[in-house]
Amino acid sequence: MRMFAILLVGLVVASPVRVQAKEPDFALERYFAGRSQATGSFTALNGVSRRFTVTLSGRWNGTTLTLREDFVFNDGARDTKTWRFRKTGPGAYLGTREDVVGTVPVRIDGRKARFSYLVYIDAERKNLVRFHDLMVLGADGEVKNTALVTKFGFPVAWTKVAFRRSER
Q1: How many alpha carbons lie under 13 Å from residue 20 in its C-beta half-sphere?
Q2: How does pLDDT run across 84-97, given as a tens digit for each residue?
Q3: pLDDT-derived band of residue 24, with 50, 70 and 90 as boundaries?
Q4: CA–CA gap between residue 9 and residue 2 (Å, rounded)
Q5: Whose CA is closest to 49, among 71, 75, 70?
Q6: Distance between CA atoms of 76 and 61, rounded to whole angstroms?
Q7: Alpha-carbon gap, residue 24 to 33, rounded angstroms
């Protein structure tokens, strides 16, 4: 019996330990590859309020998610933005977009994604604000995104967006 215990301990100690980083419940490439839609609103402290719908088209190539967003605002205005999220590890991405300053680190913890970025909200690139985004994947499959918008560190607006995947 003593010899069996010594052999068992030897096997456990000699066995390679495989520690794998667990993939979060929410992954941008799993959720946004293909087609999805969203509805949302932007509300500023100065009284500006805009509602919008978004049609999204995502393409995952194994390392980068390219996510095209086609916006239609309640006043008829249209806009298109394209995010590129490069996966750097489990639950970690670096994002870029044409109106965003620099790269945006994205961190996912379970069903929540957090990121913060500087963005020009006007065509002349004079109005620079910071978005502080929190995306949460709900049990119903909907992703809710809330963002506080700040300028010089002071709150100036907020956004709310609800994403739904299209039938694939």
Answers
A1: 3
A2: 999 999 999 999 99
A3: low
A4: 11
A5: 75
A6: 33
A7: 16
Residues 6 or more apart in contact with residue 56 via CB below 8 angstroms:
32, 35, 36, 37, 38, 67, 68, 69, 70, 163
Tokens of 134: 């929190």
User: What distances in angstroms separate CA 28 from CA 43, 59, 132, 148, one per listed residue?
Assistant: 26, 11, 17, 21
Check: CB of residue 71 under 8 Å from CB of residue 79. yes
Would you state the structure tokens that stand for residue 104, as one six-digit string? 């945006």
Instruction: Tally the residues of the chain.
Output: 168
Query: What is the token pair recorded at 27?
Result: 């992954």
**Sign of the dihedral defined by the CA atoms of residues 35, 114, 137, 60, in that order:** positive
